[in-house]
Amino acid sequence: MRTCFLIYPVVVDKRQLTTEGFKHKKSFYKFVNNLLYKELFRTFPELQLSVDEHGTNKFMLEFKKYVKKNHQRTLFSGIEFKHANSKQSIIIQLADLLREQLLVFMILQSKMNIVMNY
Fold first, then answer.
1. Could you tell me which of 27, 37, 112 has the C-alpha nearest to residue 68?
2. What domain of life (predicted)?
């Protein structure tokens, strides 16, 4: 059996999120992850998510409950959801590395746009 994985980067311009709820980290994470998961579940009916642990254990338990509630398993589709410590998961380490490279790219691109528009 072959195993493949995809890394699905999502970039959010927080300046565009102006409502009061987005000032709270928990609300922001739930909103962004819900958008991502809806797209993933629509594209891949069978999905295994490995999510980097962030925040407190209580937050991770709430988050897992939130995902399961909003993305119900059916007869033909489902989700395996697990969170992993980046120190113990090479996939999470790779995702972290790519995230940081994407961030550097976005920052440099933003600075170039400022210089070009000046």
1. 37
2. Bacteria
